[in-house]
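Hi team,

Filling in the usual template for the complex we talked about on Friday. All components are listed, including any nucleic acid strands or ligand strings, so the model treats them as one assembly.

SUBMITTER: L.P.
PURPOSE: interface mapping
COMPONENTS: two
RESIDUES: 459
SEQUENCES:
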Amino acid sequence: MSEEPRSGLHRVFLEGRFAVTAELETTDAATPGSVYALADRLRGHVDAVNCTDNSAAHPHIAPMAAARLLIDRGVEPILQLACRDRNRLALQADILGAAALGVRNVVCMTGDDVTAGDHPEAKPIFDLDAIHLIRIARIMRDRGTYVSGRGLEESPNVLIGAVENPFAPPHDYRPMRLGKKMEAGAEFIQTQICFNVERLRLFMARAAELRLLDRTWVLGGVFVPRSARAVRYLRDQVPGIDVPQEVLDRIEGVPPDRQRDEGIRMALETVEAMRAIPGVAGVHLMSIRNPDAILQVIEDAHLRRGGERVQRVPAG
Amino acid sequence: MRLGRRRLDRRPPATAPEPHGLRKAILLIEKRTKEEIWDCRMCGQCILHSTGMTCPMRCPKNLRNGPCGGVLVDGNCEVLPDRPCVWVQAWEGSRKLPLWRDHMLHVNKPVDWRLQETSSWENLATRRDAHAPEGWRAYEEPP
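RESULT (copied from the run log):
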C-alpha cells in the first residue's frame, strides 16, 4: 500500500480488511455523558462511528460536537454532512472546522426533507445536492481552495464518503448514480438499510460491470431490529426503505419477548450474506436505541476474530 | 461519456440588466411556453435536455444530479407522496430520447441562484449559464 491512509477507516480499506461501522445513537442531551457512554460501549468493536446530521429531519446534538466527543474517548468518527440545513458557505466552514477538530472521515448526503421530521414548517435549504457537496469537499482537499477559488491556508485531510440507496427506484439508474458520486469524488459508500439482499447483489454486480468497485469501498447498511414495531416503523415512516413482506412476517411471527433475538439473527444473516457478495467492503450497523444488539451481531458474526478481521471477497 | 458536455466559463458573471423590450419579450415567451409544457421553474440555467425533458427544479430538494434516497417503493416522491419522483421521470424520459442519454451521467454544477427568473435562452446565448465558481471550474479543467 503506497497510499498514506487518511484515517483509521481508510487504513482498514487499504489493507483489504472487512470494515465495520456503526451509527451513533442520536442524543438530545446538552452534556457529553451519553456520547461518552456509547463511545465506551463501541470502542474497539467498530472501525468508526457515524455522527448523524439531524437524522430523519429531527434536530439532535450537532454532529461536529458529537464527533469531537467521540475522538476524546478514542473512537473514530465519520461526520455526516447533509445539504438540508446549511448552504455552501456553512458546509465548507464545517468541513474545515471538522478537520481542525480531528475528524478524518466525512460522508456527504442530500438529507431527508424537513417534512419528514418534527419541524415540517422549517425552510429547507438544499442550496447544493450531495454530488455538489462531494465535489466541493474534494476541491477543498485536493486543490486547497473553497469552491469560489479562494485559497485555504491548509486543506482538510479527510476521507470523503457518500451514501447510496440501491433499494429505491429507479433501480436501473442506481449503479450509475454510484458512478456519478465517484466521479464527483466519493471514496467510500454507505448504503441505505438492506432488507433485500438480492437487490444489493444485483446492484453490486452491475457496479462491478461498470468497473466502479475497484475504485471505491461499499459498506452495506444493516439494521438490527429490536421488535417487529421497529421494522414496521422503518417501512411506514422512513422513505426509501424497502421492507419485503416476508421480512416483516418473520419477525412478527415470533412472540414479542423473542423478537429481539430474532432481530439479531436476521441482522446476522444479512451480514453473512453481504460478506459473500463480491466487492462489499464492510457493513454499517444501525439500530434504534439498541447498541447492545449491534455488539451482539459483531460478536456472533465473528467480525473480530481475536483481533484479526476477516478479509473481504474481492470484486471482479 | 464527456461528449457534448459544455465547457465552463472563466469569465466573471455580469449581472444582467432588467429585461426590457426584446429581451423581456423573449423572457415572457420562454416562461409561458416552458411553464405550460414542462412546469418549468425558470432557474435560468436550463438542463432539461440532459434530464429526459423533466425539469429538475420541480424536485422539492432542487436536486440537479439524480434522485435522492427517499424515493418511495412505488416510484413516488417522499415529500409529495401522491406525485411521481421527478428523477424517476427524468430517468425514464432520458431512455426515450435519441440524444443526450449519457447526460444522466454528467456531474452538473451547483445552481447559480442569481439566475432565478431570468431567461435561460438568453443565458445560453450569452454563455452566462456556463459560468461556474472558479474552484469548481478549475477542478474540471484538465490539470
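MY TAKE: The interface with chain A takes residues 60-75, 78-79, 85, 87-88, 91-92, 104-111, 113, 133-139 of chain B (CB under 8 Å). Chain B has four helices and no strands.

Thanks, L.
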